[in-house]
Amino acid sequence: MTVKIGLIGAGGMGRAHVERIEQELAGARVVAVADLNLDGARAVAEPLGAKAYGSGAELIADPEVDAVIIATFGKVHAPDVIAAVQAGKYVLCEKPLATTIEDSIAILEAEQAAGRKLITVGFMRRFDQGYQEMRKALVSGDHGYATLVHCRHRNPSVPENYTTRNMIDDTAIHEIDVCRYLLGEEIVKVRIDTPRSTSHRFEHLADPLVLVARTESGVLIDDEVNVNIGFGYSIECELVMEQGTIRLGDQNKTVVRDGAGNRNAICGSHIDRFHDAFNQEFQQWIRAVERGEHTGSTAWDGYAATAVVEAALESLDNDGREVDVTLIEKPAFYN
Ligand SMILES: NC(=O)C1=CN([C@@H]2O[C@H](COP(=O)(O)OP(=O)(O)OC[C@H]3O[C@@H](n4cnc5c(N)ncnc54)[C@H](O)[C@@H]3O)[C@@H](O)[C@H]2O)C=CC1
Ligand SMILES: O=C1[C@@H](O)[C@H](O)[C@@H](O)[C@H](O)[C@H]1O
User: Fold this and answer.
1) CA geometry: angle at 44 spanning 40 and 48, to 5°?
2) Quick one: 25 and 120 in the same domain?
3) Where is the Gfo/Idh/MocA-like oxidoreductase N-terminal domain (predicted)?
4) What is the per-residue pLDDT across 1-24, written as a single tens digit (0 to 9) for each?
5) Which CATH number goes with the domain that contains 197?
6) Does ligand 1 lie within 6 Å of residue 83's CB atom?
7) What residues contact residue 76 under an 8 Å CB cut-off, 6+ apart?
8) Which of 72, 76, 131, 309 should be mutated for ligand 1, with most atoms under 8 A from CB?
């Protein structure tokens, strides 16, 4: 079977996902593209011989579309996710699942009403080999349990319309999810520390900042979010265990050794750094859709991440005071 995919949102990520489906992955083709900017949808659809729509609703209603990818802005994800689920279609929604608790809960309710897990959230780091090996090493128990997680999320630069809030809801949300994935538990408290800002930033940004979180069992997570670091796209993670540490490996597999020393190249963007993870995420999703099964992170993961983001934003608005993360009771559906 070839899974017939509809893409909503023909921007940077949407186009990158079309390219991987058409050129690198097996088992699917893109049959429809929707964007509020209809010309943008046409530009992506026409070379594929796909249909173009001006809204997600039209695309979801197209009977030829088996499954939906949503790559629009986070704050407009919810209506399309809910419509796809109500139409009984699998949906892979880019992070964040939603930007408010209310929207996230409406999504959880719609999926439970549909009676089966149809939603995957685009937390692609769960498919990165390095993070997967870290999790395996942690779960083995060989080094005892984790006490601390040190994370660094460094981007070369950001555009002027990117805000300090985006450092949390757009950027740190990846560590929020991947720490939940690694540790297998919820984050219960969070605060935002704001050190001296870099001069290499737009004036309105508090860059860098540090998100400090605590999990149910007391593991302390610190995440340095530093979005004008200049030299490249650099993601680091270290689990401090009772007896040893487990560290995410270097991004590149080749080391150059010469008169200048030992070095490896630094990636330039998330597309580059997580190329293999994105491909794994989408290939496994396509195979799962074929089998009629769910894969990857669930709508609950999307909701829990949004709840931590909301508490972190409250901390940011309140001089960095620690804020409790309050979750609804987890429905048995998501166990
Ligand atoms: N997993 C990752 O590492 C990354 C994920 N993302 C996520 O991907 C999503 C898209 O981001 P980008 O592609 O960078 O944004 P973008 O701005 O390049 O593209 C968004 C597109 O969605 C369209 N759009 C907006 N609202 C719409 C609606 N209601 N219906 C139909 N089309 C609509 C816009 O016209 C635009 O073409 C976001 O959720 C973002 O957080 C973005 C970058 C990396
Ligand atoms: O999701 C992403 C972007 O939206 C975000 O703006 C970047 O900071 C992240 O590194 C990238 O993975």
Assistant:
1) 155
2) yes
3) 3-121
4) 899 999 999 999 999 999 999 999
5) 3.30.360.10
6) no
7) none
8) 72
Kindly report whether the global pTM for this prediction surpasses the value 0.90: yes
Q: What's the angle, vertex CA 260, arms to CA 254 and CA 266, rounded to 5?
A: 40
Assess whether 217 and 281 both reside in one domain.
Answer: no
Q: Which of 8, 13, 124, 271 is the pocket-test mutation for ligand 1 (most atoms within 8 Å of CB)?
A: 13
Based on the fold, state whether residues 27 and 77 are members of the same structural domain.
yes
Return phi, psi of residue 321, to 5°.
Answer: -65, 150
Are both 147 and 172 inside the same structural domain? yes
Q: Ligand 2: distance of its center to the CA of 299 in Å?
A: 20
Neighbours of 57 (CB within 10 A): 15
Above 0.90 for ipTM, yes or no? yes
Domain total in the chain: 2
State whether 102 and 169 are in the same domain: no
Domain limits for position 242: 126-269+305-334
- Cβ-based burial of 321 (10 A; exposed 0-12, middle 13-18, buried ≥19): exposed
- Using CA atoms, how far apart are residues 74 and 70, in angstroms rounded to an integer? 9
- Residue 94, ligand 1, Cβ within 6 A: yes
Q: Which atom of ligand 2 is nearest to the CA of 274?
A: 12
Q: Which ligand 2 atom minimizes the distance to the CA of 153?
A: 10
In this structure, the answer to whether residues 41 and 183 fall within a common structural domain is: no
Q: How far is the CA of 40 from the centre of ligand 1 (A)?
A: 12
Residue 84 sits in the same domain as residue 135: no
- The answer on 106 and 214 residing in a single domain is no
User: What CATH code is carried by the domain that includes residue 41?
Assistant: 3.40.50.720
pLDDT band at 212 (very low <50, low <70, confident <90, very high): very high
Give the ligand at the shortest distance from the Cα of 97: 1
List pocket residues of ligand 2, CB cut-off 6 Å: 155, 170-171, 174, 270
Q: How does pLDDT run across 235-245, given as a tens digit for each residue?
A: 999 999 999 99
| Angle made by CA atoms 79, 18, 74, in degrees to the nearest 5 | 30
